[in-house]
Design brief:
Layout (H helix, E strand, L loop, with lengths): L8 H47 L17 E7 L6 H23 L4 H23 L3 E2 L2 E2 H21 L23 H17 L16 H26 L5 H31 L3 H15 L7 H19 L2 H5 L2 H24 L2 H8 L14 H33 L7 E9 L2 E9 L12 H18 L7
Antiparallel strand pairs: 1-4, 2-3, 4-5
Helix pairs in contact: 1-3, 1-6, 2-3, 2-4, 3-4, 3-5, 3-6, 3-11, 4-5, 4-13, 5-11, 5-13, 6-7, 6-8, 7-8, 7-9, 8-9, 8-11, 9-11, 11-13
Length: about 475
């Protein structure tokens, strides 16, 4: 006997609706996963750009002019001490921070632990790239650069990430947010760049090599410098987009992505205009254009999707102007060039970006990203505009103080454990001046009165000092970032 089953039209509609909803949900999850992994891959381009700039000095041998030196210079070339492996700091830092991030994310947000751990691990490598490019294998008063990288990744950086991006007092979404609204550092101008720049700044104040390293005056190839800038900008853009896909509510992820791309493009364009003007009218150094672009992108990273496009362009222009003014300061010019550029581009530009996010952030941007109804920067008329700027300023001060204390403490402890590390060998020079010949002349960063050389050092010391000062004054500035 046949059984007839009747299906109501409403039931068919419900089944079709559920099937369509399931297909849409699956497609949306696939697109989100694709976007996340794509932006994560873009983040790693920053490390590639930093690596290009790191190996650039090995591509061109140094040339030293002999005009007005005195006795004829027959030959002069530098022999730098062998740098420790580049991956040494990456390996130690990755293990230290990866362990901390994995444990924390697994506890507080187990459903997104894998994505968050991968993202924050990639961000931590951005800090190590900045430090590795600045250090160039040097020792900081006897402390290898990879020790500082491990210290940052294992001690300093996890606290910063917790305070502003996870559940700390400066996260706008936290229930314990400072002043009730927290601080805005969307793309990490403070969390990434200020941290790295502060470490280099403290190390420079503690007696890091200044001005006597002959390799710091190398001119870079325009093609390599441009390639490094492109990869750096793409990497910073990847950090912004990755932050969108792990922190912005799904409803506003697409408009936030568009805002990030537009803002970072306009900021870079504004910085390039200032850099071209600096190159054409003042310095004649092509690298200034590239450094102004990177400075603008570093500054606008903190703003991210929170600002209007014209405001992002203004932030980029002002960042490039600040960069141009800062590089002409006497202290920055005296600091070893890779360290000086790290301080200028990352510390100062990152600090300006954090402050700018408290000025140009819009009410709509804060609502879409942080779900805050009446929060904006000083440039707009809302009730919390002054509070937001004060919160960002407090965040910046705490960030610098925390990083500086940890860095200085680490340097002091290692110095006390090994009292022989008061002088750092920067390199050696083999040279011949007139009738004098010597080799293995060693320079010490802390005190020029302590030098080791052949028996004829005393008679050649004034000539070599003049040679160093001449090379320092005539060498083109490099574009280390």
């Amino acid at each position: 006997m046949a059984t007839i089953v009747s299906i109501d039209g409403a039931d068919v509609h419900e089944v079709l609706f559920q099937l369509a909803e399931a297909a849409y949900r699956s497609q949306k999850e696939s697109m989100q996963a694709l976007a996340f992994h794509w932006t994560l891959c873009l983040t790693f381009l920053f490390h590639f750009g930093a690596l290009i700039r790191r190996v650039e000095p090995k591509l061109q041998p140094p040339r030293i002019s002999t005009t007005n030196i005195g006795p004829q210079l027959n030959y002069c070339h530098s022999n730098q001490p062998k740098a420790p492996p580049v991956l040494l700091g990456y390996l130690g830092g990755s293990i230290a921070f990866g362990f901390v991030a994995a444990v924390y994310c697994a506890i507080v947000q187990p459903t997104k632990a894998a994505q968050m751990c991968l993202s924050y691990w990639a961000y931590s490598l951005t800090v190590t790239s900045i430090l590795s490019s600045a250090a160039q294998g040097r020792t900081f008063n006897g402390i290898p650069s990879w020790c500082l990288v491990i210290m940052v990744s294992g001690i300093t950086y996890p606290v910063v990430v917790w305070s502003v991006w996870l559940d700390g007092w400066f996260n706008p979404r936290s229930a314990q947010a400072i002043f009730g609204i927290g601080a805005t550092d969307f793309g990490g101008s403070g969390a990434l760049h200020v941290v790295a720049g502060t470490i280099v700044f403290v190390a420079a104040l503690c007696g890091t090599p200044t001005g006597t390293n002959m390799s710091s005056g190398h001119a870079t190839r325009p093609s390599m410098d441009a390639a490094g800038t492109v990869w750096l900008v793409l990497g910073l853009c990847g950090v912004l987009l990755n932050r969108v896909w792990i922190s912005v509510p799904p409803t506003y992820q697409f408009p936030a992505t568009i805002n990030c791309v537009v803002n970072i493009t306009l900021a870079g364009a504004g910085g390039s205009v200032v850099g071209l003007a600096q190159d054409f009218f003042i310095s004649g150094v092509t690298q200034d254009t590239h450094n102004c672009i990177v400075s603008a992108v570093v500054a606008v990273s903190s703003v991210g999707p929170l600002a209007e496009p014209y405001a992002a362009c203004i932030v980029g222009v002002t960042a490039a102007l600040i960069y141009c003014l800062t590089t002409w300061s006497t202290w920055i010019q005296d600091v070893d060039r890779p360290l000086g550029y790290c301080i200028t581009v990352h510390l100062i530009m990152g600090a300006w970006g954090v402050l700018a996010s408290g000025v140009v952030g819009t009410r709509q941007g804060h609502w879409q990203v942080y779900s805050q109804a009446d929060t904006c920067g000083l440039a707009y008329g809302c009730s919390d505009r002054g509070t937001l700027f004060a919160s960002n300023l407090l965040y910046l001060v705490c960030l610098i103080v925390w990083t500086a204390l940890i860095t200085y403490g680490a340097i002091s402890i290692i110095r006390s454990l090994d009292p022989t590390t008061h002088y750092d060998v920067l390199g050696t020079i083999d040279f011949a001046i007139g009738d004098y010949e010597a080799s293995d002349i060693r320079f010490y960063s802390a005190d020029h009165s302590k030098r080791e050389s052949s028996s004829e050092w005393a008679s050649m010391s004034p000539l070599l000092d003049e040679l160093i000062q001449y090379q320092k004054s005539t060498s083109p500035r490099t574009s280390w970032v």
